[in-house]
Amino acid sequence: MDKNIAIIMINILTVLFVPFLVLGIINKTKAFWGGRKGASVFQPFYNTIKLFKKDKTISTTTSWIFNFAPVVVFATTLFAAFFAPMVNGYSIINIAGAFVIFSYILGLGKFFALISAMDTGSSFEGMGASREACFTTIVEPAFFIILASTVVLSGNYNFNSITNTISNFQSYGILIAVLASISLLVMLLIECSRIPVDDPSTHLELTMIHEVMILDNSGFDFALLSWASGIKMVILMSLIANFIIPSGLNNSLNILLYYLIIFVLAVLTGTIESAIARLRMSHVFEFIFVMSSLALVIASLTAVKIYGV
Amino acid sequence: MENFFTGIIIIIFGAFISLFLKNQNHKIKLTSISAVIGAVFTIVSAIKALSGTLEAYSFYLGPVFQNVVISLDNLSAFFVIFISLMSALAIVYANGYLKKYIDNKKDISAHCLFFNLLIASMLLVVSAKNALWFLVVWEIMSLSSFFLVIFENDKKEVIKAGVKYLVYMHVSVVFIILMFAVLSINSSSLDFDQFKILLNNNSALCNLVFVLGFIGFGIKAGFTPFHNWLPDAHPAAPSHVSAVMSGVMIKTGIYGILRVLSFIQHPSAQIGYFVLIISVISALYGVLYAISQHDIKRLLAYHSIENIGIIGIGIATGMLGLTYNYMPVAILGFAGGILHIFNHSIFKELLFLAAGSIYTKVHTRDIEILGGLIKPMPKTAVLFLVASIAICGLPPFNGFVSEFLIYFSMLKGLMINNVAFFIASILSIAALALVGTMAILCFTKVFSIVFLGQPRSAAAEDVKEDTTISFIFPMILLALFTLLIGVFPQYVFNFMMSVVNIFTRNNAVNLSQTITVMQTLSYCAFGLCGFILLLFVLKCLFKNKHEKHSTWGCGYNKPTAKMQYSASSYASPFIKTLTPLFKKVSDIKKPRALFPAEAHFEEHLEDVEEAYFLEPFFKTVERFFAKFEKIQNGNIQQYIAYGLVFLALALLSVVILG
């Protein structure tokens, strides 16, 4: 029991505070490739603290939705994190079919993020919201196919069964885990508004998606929203980590490996951002369909593995 | 059973007595009071039936009908409960909604009469256990709803929609008659119990009967190739009628399908996949067209098609579970599908009623010219928001519970060792996820264009919310239902089990896992709500200074309502990726020359089924029948000659055939 409590504590702390570090590392990596010294890796944390203290400006067009939405977005993201397998492959709320609940809770957050953007009556934010809604429709089915396949592979409906993918199926498992990790990485780039889909470092370009939706948020609200976005990134990174880490390792090694993978993923994201340019909007769809096709490949591999067709 | 009949008699009598009242306001009051009292009686009877009392009555109705049995088994009782409840709420709402029409000296007697007749006939449909009796009450139901649709019969498009509806309903009834004919010829009886015995172990006949029944009832329910009447009939009808039609009446189609299914012990794999494919297509088709609509009621009508598809996915999964003899899949699939019937009727009715409240204030159904209504109509906005979240299937509301059950049954289905079902399940899971996210896109669109931002036209300015009790009370009650089912799924699930037993024939299955999950879902719903509220309170305590300013517009300080994103622009990135699935009709006049005097742009999307299939088809039919115009020339002597020729031929055939 004590061990469980310790892991729950580690999980909660990871979810809450690792996002800042991940963002810091990404920025540091980008600075490194750009030949700059860059800000400290703790800078995102200081920024958020500062934002919490700041006054805010609210548009006269907005209603209570605009005030309420950041709270919903933050709460749902954090709550969804309780369902996902995090450190040591441990889900705080571990029940059958959890990945469905996980996605739908995130969906509630997205719903409020979208209407909050529309609440300002700004054409920029409307544009962002409409694109975000559109991309989600393509991402989500692929995510469900991947998770459903891993459910069959492990024969267990719990979300953290993804940790067994490799150990249950040896070479097949490795193949599936790698494909799943790649498609989740693609999902991470889309959902957390990173290059090549979106550019988090600028707010003012007409090709913006997620970042433009929070254009009118400031102070406390903005802090909550960017924190939530960081948490989402850590959740998706944890999923990748749990796909890769083989189960059956001892706890400390497992935890060490987990943080190592998160670190590598942060560096990788930063490197991707430095290496390639943002895609044209019409090509973003093609990029997202990479995820869909990978998901279908995973599903077919699963069918082949189980039924030996 | 006395309660049930008392209820129905009260409902019908209330309606007829209202015809003799002079005051229009009293008419609607009397009908609604009788509907509510009748609802109480029928619900009491249904609850009795569910708790194990035998609720049945039979009488001999001449040699044609033979023995008519009216009884409430669990399936009927479930439908009786929600038909009574939802219709009563809608007619209470009508008190407020019809006020405007009464003030304009519109006669509402026929409307009141047919509304209660519709309720009574729906109740009789779901309790009938005799084929001929079923067809009679079914027809009364279709006809009375037709008269409700053409309430505003001075409008041309209303009559057109009404006639289309009538035609569709009669095509539907042809298939239902065919199905019952096949059944009663083979069993030489009209009794449902005999059909059940007949279909036991006769799988070829099962398939034929089911497909006929599915097409017939599917037209009523609005499954995709047969859905075309829905998006026309719903906008034409008054809001509370659309609410009942979409929330309750089309579910009698689903009831029919479920009833036919209850005759069949082991549905074959073919019909299971048939239903699954049609349902997936319906769900996707419905939500796709909903996204492209700007008429709020038309949009909601397309969402009914989507939800019928989701219900169908649940039922199909249940059927396949029966086929492969894997009970957990069957139970969860049916439970999810049937619960979604109830859930959909709650939030869809709420949406239609809220849309009606908006319509009475702004007098338009076009969402493109609305905006900012959350300020003048805060209560309607919250209610609409609740229903929107529920229809997207998001927690903590009821839509999530039924969709989760369907997901869960398909996840279990993945484990059955059958590769066809594996592929079907995994694709349906993806389809359901796609439908869910598309619904989010659609309802964020509707909610934000109607309620948020700035008013886009004068129609949306100077609106004042009507909070009379008959208007707001039914909606609040419906919103409460969505929340209660969402936060207490475990009780609802237990309730569903008693209904599902009809299909799984009381096979004992260990469902402890699902019950635990339902229990946890309840905790999670509470946790989520609590967490959001706690954070919100914290945020309110955390008082920062804030200043008001107009929306940031890239340095431009005078934003106007016209600069906002519109509904079509919101949907456009998604629609653009799927262009081939629409027929685009556009009218563009580009600005020309140095000083362009005028420019014009108009575009709307048409249903491909209607544009590329139905219209050409009906044109061909019309051309074909035009050839026979010569026969009907108005000359009475010639008609008598036809009669003579016919009689001669008939005599001849008797002689020849002996």
What does this protein structure show overall?
- The complex is a heterodimer of chains A (309) and B (658).
- By secondary structure, chain A is mainly alpha-helical.
- Chain A has one domain.
- Chain A has ten helices and one strand.
- In chain A, helix 6 (165-191) packs antiparallel against helix 10.
- Chain B is mainly alpha-helical and 658 residues long.
- Among the domains of chain B are: 267-538 and 568-581, no CATH class; 584-617, no CATH class; 628-658.
- Chain B is built from 24 helices and five strands.
- A two-stranded antiparallel ribbon of chain B has the order 1-2. A two-stranded antiparallel sheet of chain B has the order 4-5.
- In chain B, helix 11 (230-236) runs antiparallel to helix 12, helix 15 (327-362) packs antiparallel against helix 16 and helix 16 (378-391) runs antiparallel to helix 18 (419-451).
- The longest helix of chain B has 36 residues, at 327-362.
- The radius of gyration of chain B is 26 Å and the shape is globular.
- The mean pLDDT of chain B is 91.
- Chains A and B meet through strand 1, helix 3, helix 4, helix 5 and helix 10 of A and helix 17, helix 18, helix 21, strand 3 and helix 22 of B.
- Strand 1 of chain A pairs parallel with strand 3 of chain B.
Strands, helices and their partners?
The complex is a heterodimer of chains A (309) and B (658).
Chain A: H1 2-33, H2 43-53, E1 56-59, H3 64-81, H4 98-119, H5 123-154, H6 165-191, H7 210-213, H8 219-244, H9 251-275, H10 281-307
Helix pairs in contact in A: 1-8, 1-9, 2-8, 3-4, 3-8, 4-5, 5-6, 5-10, 6-8, 6-10, 8-9
Chain B: H1 2-18, H2 24-50, E1 55-60, H3 62-65, E2 67-72, H4 74-97, H5 99-103, H6 109-127, H7 131-149, H8 156-187, H9 192-199, H10 203-221, H11 230-236, H12 239-263, H13 269-292, H14 296-323, H15 327-362, H16 378-391, H17 398-414, H18 419-451, H19 469-487, H20 489-504, H21 512-541, E3 546-549, H22 567-577, E4 583-589, E5 600-606, H23 608-626, H24 636-657
Antiparallel strand pairs in B: 1-2, 4-5
Helix pairs in contact in B: 1-2, 1-6, 2-4, 2-6, 4-6, 4-12, 4-15, 4-19, 6-7, 6-12, 7-8, 8-10, 8-11, 10-12, 11-12, 11-14, 12-14, 12-15, 13-14, 13-18, 14-15, 14-17, 14-18, 15-16, 15-17, 15-19, 15-20, 16-18, 16-19, 17-18, 17-19, 20-21
